[in-house]
Amino acid sequence: MTSTLIDNIGLLVTNDPLHGSLTAERSAAAVVIEHGLVAWVGDAADAPAADERLDADRRCVIPGFVDSHSHLVFAGDRADEFEHRMTGQAYAAGGIRRTVAATRAATDADLLANAERLVAEMRAQGTTTVEIKSGYGLSVEHEERSLAIARRLTAETTYLGAHVVPPEFADDPAGYVELVTGEMLAACAPLARWIDVFCEAGAFDEDQARAILRAGQAVGLGARMHAGQLGLSGGVRLAVELGAASVDHCTFLADADVDALAAGDTVATLLPGVEFSTRQPYPNARRLIDAGVTVAIATDCNPGSSFTSSMSFCIAVAVRDLRMSPAEALWAATAGGARSLWRDDVGVIAVGKRADLVLLDAPSYVHLAYRPGVPLVHRVITG
Fold first, then answer.
1. pLDDT confidence of residue 17
2. Other residues' Cβ atoms within 10 Å of the Cβ of residue 246
3. How wide is the angle at C-alpha 297 spanned by C-alphas 291 and 298, nearest 5°?
4. How many angstroms separate the CA atoms of 38 and 326, rounded?
């Protein structure tokens, strides 16, 4: 295994908290990679010898993006729903069932090929760590196979049998919760690291969500939650109460929700692609950050409410419409995502961490928001 020196870096963003600032930026820097890990970081003039050299040509180097919320195992297309929303139709959770029908009808090969294509899109745009949820199967057989497919693409797999109640249980939601926490959980837990639940009107209420997450935690899964997307509820505070790693969406928050997040360790993961695609109000990131809440940004890549695989796009929207600074948005899309996955080996460029780096065709990460829609990723390096 050879070592590689990356030098002539115009601006290096490390996110290393030891350097005392949010993104810990440094100019005229260099990085040495060895055995897939960062072996050295410092001033280029002090760089040790290495077997190979990569000239960054004064480009900005950032940690690989950590996309901590995606739904990539699915079939079908819902572009017509997007078109209808753009002409005034409100978003509702019911469209999920349409994707469930298409996913159940698809072959394993088709589902894997589609997920692989989306992961490749993400990688080309700088995402080096991705979480993938199930949730478009909603039966024991189909949830298990969704997770088996996701497991081929990432270690960060999430069991989301509690996405919505499927049509065959429309008259027996309690029976579906029993299935999700019983036979389905037993089949899916060996393939998952996390358990998630959509705690919203039209999906699962707080009591159901509590039972589902506690069942997953009892068999060793970490908890995540969708909450606060469609309106106010107690789901955000429930996530904090249960020690969930992340509560995602957080579009609608009461003061008590913000206070609970600030007092706890649960990350608030914001999904700006959803509001862009649904014309709902954008979440107030400034309110969360100023309260001391840890914030992450993710794509929520899915065929219904946010069909984007671009973290750069989400950063641009976060800066413009969520009122985040470019530094805050970049941190949220890297180190913040890592926090929401209970990871300290990604989202940062520091000695001993995974060598997941992105070279930008730009002098600064500010260009991610300054030049929205422009493909600025020059090269992706993964440990």
1. 79
2. 29
3. 150
4. 25
pLDDT tier at 27 (50, 70, 90 boundaries)?
confident
Per the CB < 8 A criterion, the answer to whether 103 and 146 are in contact is yes
CA pseudo-torsion sign 323, 325, 328, 334: positive
Contact 15, 346 (CB under 8 A): no
Question: Are the CB atoms for 157 and 150 separated by under 8 Å?
Answer: yes
- Going by DSSP bridges, is the β-strand pair 377-381/25-34 parallel, antiparallel, or unpaired? unpaired
Quick: pLDDT tens for 80-130: 999 989 998 876 656 888 999 999 999 999 999 999 999 999 999 999 999
Q: Rounded to an integer, what distance in angstroms lies between the CA atom of residue 365 and that of residue 362?
A: 7
- Nearby residues of 280 by Cβ (< 8 Å), 6 or more positions away: 91, 229, 251, 274
Distance CA 300, CA 56 (A): 31
Give the rounded distance of the alpha carbon of 5 from its chain centre: 30
- pLDDT for the residue numbered 178: 98
209 with 235: CB under 8 angstroms? Answer: yes
